[in-house]
Amino acid sequence: MTPALAPSLGGATAARRSMFAAQRQLDALYRLNVSVKAWRFLLSVEEARELLPESAPRTGLLAVEEAGELWIGLYLDPADLMDPDTVVEETSHFLCLAWHAEQGRPVSALTLELQSEVDRYLLARLDGRDPLAHFRDFDFGAWMDGPTRERYELAHAAGHHYCRALDGRFPLRGDLPALLEELRGFYRAPADAKLRRARAVA
Questions:
Q1: Domain identity same for 117 and 88
Q2: CA within 20 to 30 Å of 90's CA: 24, 115, 159, 202, which one?
Q3: CA 58, 61, 64, 69: dihedral to nearest 10 degrees?
Q4: What's the pTM value of the predicted model, to 2 decimals?
């Protein structure tokens, strides 16, 4: 991957630290060895808005492919700076995109959303929080058009199904090695196989 957006100095120090911690944890858990760092691509909301359509979410990943180069950036609305789930979600998007780019593999927006659902589950579980809480409390944004909402609903439903199954199959702290082995395979699965696996697993 050749990032063409220069890393921005904008954004909150706390957000950069949270992104650094989230990427370090996800990278180690999945054994990804991604070379680029999410926190170095944190844009201010003002910088991001200059490149985004009016219907864009208030917080998100900015990715533009042009002439073989991938331009990337992350932006966090001030209202989301202290929300650990949002920071994990956006860091997950960045990391998944970067890993696929470095592997020379295509990746879809649906795959990014599905993987972020699983990543939020995993880090909440390891942090001692209710790992399924965000599935119950999820709120679809008013900014979404029809196809976008459909994609989010599909990723959310498949992720919820998969993570509930993980909770049942690996309920104990001692199950962590087997859980991580399962999730490393899931991370590396092709997009279609990943979605089928998430929806079909018992």
A1: no
A2: 202
A3: 150
A4: 0.88
